[in-house]
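Name: Sigma-54-dependent Fis family transcriptional regulator
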Amino acid sequence: MRDELAQLMAALRDSRDFESAAAATLRRMLAAAEAAVASSRYAGRARVLRGIVHLRPGEAYRRLAALDVGARETTDAGVGTPFFTSATAWRAVVEHRCAVSIDVNIGTVQPHAPDAPVTGDPGLAGFHSNESKQRFLGRHATHVCVLPLRTPAGMEGMISLEAECLAAMGQEFVWRDAGDLLQLFTDIAAPYLTALPQRPVATPEVDEFLPVVGRSMAELLPILRVFALQDETILVSGATGAGKSRLARWCHERSNRRGKPFETLDLVTVPEDLQMAELFGWKKGAFTGATRDAPGVVARSDGGTLFIDEIDKLSLKAQAGLLHLLESRSYRPLGEGTGEKLADVRFIIGTNADLHAQVRAGRFREDLYYRVNVLPVRMPPLQDRNDEIPLWARYMVNRRHRERQPEGSARLAPEAEHLLVTSSWPGNLRQLDNIVRRAYTLAMVEHAGAGGDLVLLEKHVARALDYEQAPGGRPLPEALRAAAQAFVGEARRRGAPLDLDLADGFRGLVLGLAIRQVGRDEAFRLLGRESLVKNRNHHKALKRELEKVDGLYKALGEDGSPFSDLLEGEEAT
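Structure predicted for Sigma-54-dependent Fis family transcriptional regulator:
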């Protein structure tokens, strides 16, 4: 065993990316599993099939890598064989904090912890559907071992090993006997698998459904391509306006259901008492105002995909109805007397909330949570996809111009793009689209039929951003982030270091503005420095802070700070 561990450590030290570390780890784990089979009573009657590394920090998938026995290189877990990830497996390792064995045929989960009970499938949402079971069996996997991928930060994912052994159905397989070694391999590999970068991906092709793909999204797309080809539920989390509905449509168009209906239900727009009706439809007379039969969104998306956004807004009553639909694939329209309709629908769920926290608070059903949290991905906010901002802005400008004036072209000036990149985007793509639309209108007003290209200048974007300010100003965290973003943007624009110590001038800006508004002594009190006034030390403190402001403005090429008069007054004091 010592040689095996030494070989793994050497291979991991030589790994330069997640994929090579995953391949090195899985090769040795699969070899250990094969050795355990060879020395067991199942020798000659069982075969180890494959291993998969599932990296999913914070509940959302980030990377996948699969290795079949005998292969040298990993795949993205979706090439050549139908990849499947089980919500049951993930829930089991999270709940038991240890490795588990799954007997697929009889649907039991056996934790490797001492004296842990065997758990039947009814208590573990996600695997007890026959659909999930058949997907495992379709891969010839009858026995699965799932090992937690742990770091000091917590549970970062899992490694699953699959084997085929009909002779072991309902009996103990080799996983527990080999479990200590397999978990040791997993623990040794965990720091490398979670820290190493992903192998650079080829520049993805853009299309009408996802016309802009930056670095962050490019890393996510390989996983989404795998998920898109399955019928299991995808859970897309992310901030409002980040593009979840666009991503859902992209997945639909790359699924086996492309060409079939794609429907969206945004629960923010549906009152609670109408949610069941919107989902399942109704018969004439089912409630006041139901003057005719009407199909619900489930019926309208039959054969295709249904994207339900803001799932956390679903009432507890409607949650029970959705849970029944997901479990039985059947539903009953409101007012329908007897019988249920079958639902041939693939579900994609969107949320900007922490659903696990909603479960703990009693606002979201735990069983439904595990039903929708099968293939979870997280959509990064636009602020974390900074390289996409100018690309999205160009796309939005060109699209709007084609709608308004098919002839000619429109573009953003470099300074205008720079201003967009250095701004804060709490509203994500939705907010960016509003700003671009507003700036485009301002530019059109000035253009007034003049010839040549339409150019959105920095002043147009600046005015559009000014209109965005809500009464009372933006929230302080957002404003601080915008200030920090502007500082970093200035350093990048000039191509030379901008000393971080100059950021200390912000304190002086705050103090100077407070003095302008409420007077010097009251400003010190307002900002928690009343003791300096009492001790008569506030003159030195004010001068020191205003000198930092002056230094910041000079470094930025400005003639003087907005508080030069205050500084001169303190120097004269």
